[in-house]
Amino acid sequence: MPIHTCPPHTHSHTPELIRAEVEELKSDFNRRIKEVLFNSLFSAYYVAFLPLCFVKSTQYYDMRWSCEHLIMVWINAFVMLMSQLLPPSYCDLLHRSAAHLGRWQKLEHGSYSNAPQHVWSESTIWPQGVLFLFHKPLRILNLLIWIESSVVLYQLYSLLRSERWNHTLSLGLILCCNYYVLFKLLRDRIVLGKAYSYPLSSNSLGLKSQ
After folding, report:
1. CA–CA separation, 52 vs 63, rounded Å?
2. What pLDDT is attached to residue 210?
3. In sequence order, which residues have a C-beta less than 8 Å from that of residue 65 and are 6 or more positions away?
4. pTM for this structure?
5. How many DSSP H helices and E strands does the chain contain?
């Protein structure tokens, strides 16, 4: 786990050090995303796709169900790996680092005269409110909850329409795993939502790693 080297309420750090830390965190984040994508596709390939290659021509299999099972395995592996490699403490780390760096704010046409203007300088830290990448620390968690909830609802719908015992058994086993993942995501969302609802002076201290 990378370490945030710029404590809050500290202005002695130079912008170059902050940008160097952000570059390191960005590289680490991109590496984790690549690992999630590769391993989720790798799992879906071996669990759902590769067995179809060994089906004999004289045997029959449901193509629609196989494709649906392949997609579900990939999505489930993706969400599980995301929750494992991007834990709340890591997202909070990115949020605190982004709070020091800032983010670009898009200006609508005709509003330039009302917005504060700042001249770009590599040795300047942009003030709060001007520029936050990852300024919403719960964004990734909310996205994972939305994806997992959609998958669970669709699988419940498929379970109600299922007429074959093997489909029912497969959906039941996958749903058991998804219930646990959804419960863990919702638990983290409730706890972190309350933690980030405190005033800025308390929230800027960041989350303690457990």
Report:
1. 10
2. 40
3. 167
4. 0.70
5. 7, 0
